[in-house]
Amino acid sequence: MSFEELKERYSKFLSRRDKFRNPISFWDGDLAPPDLIGLEVGLPNENLFPIKAIDLHLVDKPFDDKEAFVASMDRYDNPEGLPIARSFQYSETRGMFPLINFCKKVIGTVNKPAYDEWDVLLSNGSSDSMFKIFETFCDESTTVLMEEFTFSPVISNVQNTGATCVPIKMELTTDPAKQGIDIAYLTHLLENWTTIPQYSHLNKPKMIYTIATGQNPTGMTLSMEKRRQIYALAQKHDLLILEDDPYGYLRFSPYDPVHPLKNLYTDESHSLTVEDYLQKMLVKSFMTLDTDGRVIRLETFSKLFAPGLRLAYIAANKFIIERLLNFTEVTTRAPSGASQAIVYTTIMALGSKETAADEMDAMFLGWIKWVMKLASAYTHRRNVTFKALYETEAYKKNFFTVLEPSAGMFIDIKVNWPTPPTGDKKELMSQLNKIIIKNGVKVVLGHKMAVDQDFSSDSADFLRLTVAYAKDEDQLTEACHRIGKGFVELFNM
Predict the structure, then answer these.
(1) Residue 429 and residue 105: Cα distance in Å, rounded?
(2) In the UniProt record, does the keyword Transferase occur (predicted)?
(3) Is the distance from CB of 80 to CB of 363 less than 8 angstroms?
């Protein structure tokens, strides 16, 4: 597909506001002589920056400061990364090209789109990515489909454009083949849109938003078969797919109840290679199925590096990237140069320990090995949490089911009510939450992350907990025991 073909196909998706959004430039594009003295740009002189050099002390292994090594950032001459004079200066709106190229390397290696005319744009974190995308494609006439439980700020982000969010029923199950979006429900919804009373007054959807791997809040992961079916529906009904993937690289190794702390990432009897991780552990993106350029993929450094850096990137077809770039030109412009420099310098340092065909291959290999260490750490935390939950009296009495995730940071505990429940489910969940808080643990109630609480009233009876933030495994274990006591107290009332 050419750029013009992409423009013709996807211009109709643009919001009313975006159609009038074109940045005005005062730059003169005429060729200049090589000895030109630039007096036109509002750039401060780099010699006036107060920072001359920065040393980054990097850990080689999560939580092990003893294995630190140093990567330096100098003002001008910095073979180890982006120099301060460049990264702390105003920069290209799309992001600094060395980091852009690395992000393209990641996409092209792990989740290469099934067409050629795609590109990457850096952003100030995934929330910024979503804001710009929804502003570009959504207005009062727009309907956006999303999983019935989702990251709550996304709902607000869509609604702030005037658009309407419509929930898609999910299969909340321990069966990996069935987890996530209910395909039969989605098919019926799209095929019968104009005859469904609660939606017939709305325009037919133009976009599906999904957290396809390690979904927040459910922890569910869409199988490749479901992804193929959803993509086919998107083609048939001409939908964009917005794939948000902050958790996809944090893949868990399978849980073994007989050996609950077993971790394939660290198991000496099973050497998990980078190739094994890329080809067998990770679930491929919708982009790998995308022959049309209708998938927009969001990746972020937040969960893999540090969220406070506010650095993420968008991969999409070149026309969509151009529209997002035009919006970025008059809003946030480039992400923090300091953040870009820290991330790029760190990745270069990780790559310096690797042997590869070229520098970019070495950087990619070093980065993936770091990500695997993080995935290993999260797998261990998942294992500790499962073990502790399964040891509780509440679990042994079948008061709850653990919806075992295969990726991410979240575990859902679904309540097994007596038949029928001895009261209103929502009120009972509120009681359970109060008891758990009293016991010294905070979790998130499922209905708090529902797109439509009435729609999801029968399926919102779960608690979301995260394995990410607890100080150590002792805290995770204690928290699970306190949750178990909370269930026992509720069921004995």
Answers:
(1) 46
(2) yes
(3) no
Q: Tokens for 397? A: 């009495």
- Beta strands, E only, 9-99: 53-58, 69-74
Express each pLDDT in 315-371 by its tens digit: 999 999 999 999 998 899 899 999 999 999 999 999 988 888 899 999 999 999 999
Please state the domain extents for the chain.
Answer: 3-19+92-248+283-337, 376-491
C-beta separation of 287 from 113 below 8 A = yes
Burial (CB count within 10 angstroms: exposed 0-12, middle 13-18, buried 19+), residue 109: middle
Would you tell me which CATH number, out of the four given (3.40.50.720, 3.10.20.740, 3.90.1150.10, 3.40.630.30), belongs to the domain 376-491?
3.90.1150.10
Which of 142, 114, 106 lies closest to 17, judged by CA? 142
**How many other C-beta atoms are found inside a 10 Å radius of the C-beta of residue 67?**
9
How far is residue 188 CA from its own chain's centroid? 28
Among 307, 299, 292, smallest CA distance to 114 is for 292
CA distances, 119 to each of 21, 315, 385 (Å)? 20, 6, 39
Concatenated DSSP letters of 189-252? HHHTGGG-TTTTTSPPP-EEEE--SS-TTT-----HHHHHHHHHHHHHHT-EEEEE-SSTT-BP
For residue 441, give the 3-state DSSP assignment.
coil
Over residues 366-420, the pLDDT tens digits come to 999 999 999 999 999 999 999 999 999 999 999 999 999 999 999 999 999 987 7
Q: Which residues of the chain have pLDDT under 50?
A: none
User: Count of CB atoms within 10 A of residue 188's CB?
Assistant: 13
CATH class of 3-19+92-248+283-337: alpha beta
Give Dmax (Cα) for the chain. Answer: 84
Q: Output the CA–CA distances (angstroms, integers) from residue 239 to 9, 61, 135, 228, 230, in the order listed.
A: 11, 42, 17, 14, 10
